[in-house]
Amino acid sequence: MAFLAIPSLIQDLIPAASESINPWNWNLNATGLFFPTMHALSKFALLGACAVQSVMGLPDQVSRERREANLLKRSVDDWVNRETPIAWQRLLCNIGPNGCAVANQGVPAGVVVASPSRANPDYWYTWTRDAALVFKGIADAFARNYTTDLHTQLKNYVGSQAKLQGVGNPSGGLSDGQGLGEAKFMVDLKEFSGAWGRPQRDGPPLRAIALIRYAKWLVENGHKATAASQVWPTIENDLKYSAQYWNQTGFDLWEEVSGSAFFTIASTHRALIEGAQLGAVLGKPTRVYTTVAPQVLCFQQSFWNAREGFIVSNINGGEYRRGLDANSLLVAIHNFDPSAGCDANTFQPCSDKALSNHKAVVDSFRSIYNINRGIAQNKAVAVGRYSEDVYYNGNPWFLSTFAAAEQLYDALLVWKSQGSITITQTSLPFFRDQVAGATVGTHAAGSTIYNQIISAITAYADGFIEINSRYAHSNGALPEQFDRNSGAPIAAPDLTWSYSAFLTATARRDGYIPSGWGAGQATSLPSGQCQKFEIASSYSLPPTPSFPSSISPAPNAPVEQVTKVPTGCTNPEKVFVTFNQRASTQVGQVIKIVGNVPELGSWDVNKAIPLSAAGYTGSDPLWAITVPIQAGSNVQYKYFRITNGVAGVTWEGGNNRSYTVPAATCNIQQKNDNWQ
Ligand code: NOJ
Ligand code: NOJ
C-alpha cells in the first residue's frame, strides 16, 4: 500500500514544483538572489504532510482526489493566513488622514483613495462606489469584532460622506439630488471637473448600504438616537436619490456603458429595502422606499436571459457586448442574505439563476486568457470584468476572481445551514461540471450527491483564491489586474477594492455570514406589469456628524434588532401624485415642475423638480415624476424647460395650472398635462 501510493505522491509534487518556477512566485531581492515566494514555499511545506497521508493508505483513485483537495486547501489556508494581515494593513493605508500611503497628502479623515497610484493609471481620487464597498466590508468586520480603531474609521467615513454630499459637481448639486450621482472626487473632496462617465447611480445606494450597516450596529448596541441624528441624514439623501433616479440611465460600475446596469439596479433594491427597515426602527418616513422597491425588483428580473441562462449585465445600452460580466457576480455577493435562502428574484448566490450565471460568466473567460489555457472545465480560472474588455488590453482582475470564489462560499453556507441542495434544470449544467452524476431534485445532507457537491464546490471555490494567490505580488500586494498572458500583477497598485474583495471572500470562506438586509421579506414581485414611477424628494445637507465619546458595544443592554421591512399604507399624510407632461424636447433639455406648495418648491425655480424622460419615446414625448404632496392641498403649478449650457428658463405658456390633491389615499394619482 505504501509503495503503491508513491507514484501518485510524486505526481502531486510535479505541479507544486513546476509552479514554483513561475516567475511570479519568485522574488528578486536587492542582492539579486531569487527567493521563492510564500506561495511557492507553502507548496513545498506541504510535502511532508502529504507523505504521511499517503502512507496511511487510501484506495488509489479516491486518495488521489483527496490529496489534491487537501493540497489545495492547505495551500489556500496558508496564503489566506499570511495575506489577511497584509490586506488589512494595506487597505487601511489608503484611508485618510493617517493611512500609511496617504498621510500628509491632504486626504481628510474617512476618505478612501482608490489606489495611491498617481499615474498610469491615475487613481488618486476617491470613488463613491469603491469607498462604499470598502466601508461595508469594514462595518461587517467591525460588527463581528469591535475595535476602537475601526470604530474611528467608521465615524470618519460618516463625516466625510456627510460633507461630500454637499459638494456641487458636474453631475449637479444637492438641491434636486443629482450631484449625488457623481462617481469620483478629488482626494481632498473637491469636485473633479474633467470629462468622465457620469452620472453613476450605484454610488448613492452603495453608500447607503455601508452607512446602514454601521447605523444598525448603533441601534443593536443601544445607540439608536445617535444612529437617527448622526447617520440617518446622510443615508436618507442617498435613499431619496435611489427612489428618484433609479429608472434613469447612467454609467455602469465600470464607467463605460451608459444604460441600465444590473449592479446598479440590484444595489438600489437592496438599499431601499434595508433603508426602509432601518427607517422604520428610527421612526422615519419610509413609504417612498417601500413603494418604489418592489418595482425596482420587478425591473431587475428583465436582465435575465432565460434562453442562455445568464444575466445580461447592461441593457438599454452596451448591446455590442454579450452581457456576460463580473457585474453580476458582484450582485450575487453584495446582495447575499441567508434569510432569502436560494431565492432567484433577489439573485441569491445559491439560486439556480445565479449559479447558471456563475458558470456562464466564468466560462466566458476560459478560452480568452493565455493563463487559463489547459485548465480543466471543472477547475477555477482567472476572471476579468467581461470578455470584450480592452482596458489595459483586457485582463483578469483580482476582485472579480475573488467574487467568483465568494459567491460559491456563500452558496455553501446556505446549503449547509438548510441541510440540502436543490438542483433545477437551470442550474444543472453548473452542477454537472462539478459532479457528473448530479441530477435535478433536492439532495439532502448525507446523500452521496450532496456530499460530492459540497466537496467539489469547496475545492472549486478555493481554486479561485489559489489563482489570485499565484498572481499576487510576492509581498502580498494586490493591484487591480494581472496580465492575461504572463500573469504579472499590473495596473493600479494597491487597489483598495482588491484588498476588500480578498477580505470579504475569505470571511465567507471562514464561515462569517454578513448581516441580512430584509431580502427574505422582499422576494415577491408585484402582480402585473412593472411600473416605473420615480418619486421626488427634497434633499438637505446633513449636519456635520458628532459622535458622543461614550459609544461602545453594549452586549448586555436591551438590544433592538433591525429585522422587519415595513409594509402597508394607511391614512397617509401625503398623497403620491404623478405628473405626466407631454413635451417634445431635444437632447440636453430638461422639463421641470414648480408650484406654490413646499413639495413643488414654493415657486422657487432653484427648487423646481426635474421630470424624468425614462418613458420618453419618439411617438410619446412623456416626461414624468411622482411627488408626495400633503393630502387635500390646493396646488398651483407650472412646467418650464431648461437647456444645458443655456442660462435662464423657458416657461410653458398659459395660466398657472391648478390641481386639488384628494384626501388621504394610498393610490398613486395621475395628472396628465401637455406642454402649452
Ligand atoms: C477608467 C475607468 O475607471 C475604467 O473602468 C475604464 O475601463 C477606463 N477608464 C476606460 O474607459
Ligand atoms: C475602474 C473600475 O472600472 C471602477 O469600477 C472603479 O471604481 C475605478 N477603477 C476605481 O477603482
From TrEMBL:
Cross-referenced InterPro entries: 6-hairpin_glycosidase_sf (IPR008928), 6hp_glycosidase-like_sf (IPR012341), Carb-bd-like_fold (IPR013784), CBM20 (IPR002044), CBM20_glucoamylase (IPR034836), GH15-like (IPR011613), Glucoamylase (IPR000165), Glucoamylase_active_site (IPR046966)
Segment forming the signal sequence: none
Keywords of this entry: Carbohydrate metabolism, Glycoprotein, Glycosidase, Hydrolase, Polysaccharide degradation, Signal
SMART domains reported in the protein's UniProt record: CBM_2 (SM01065)
Biological process (GO), any one: polysaccharide catabolic process
GO MF annotations in UniProt: glucan 1,4-alpha-glucosidase activity; starch binding
Gene3D superfamilies noted in UniProt: 1.50.10.10, Immunoglobulins
Transmembrane feature ranges: none
Enzyme class name: hydrolase
Gene Ontology cellular component list: fungal-type vacuole
Stated name of the protein: Glucoamylase
Protein species of origin: Apiosordaria backusii
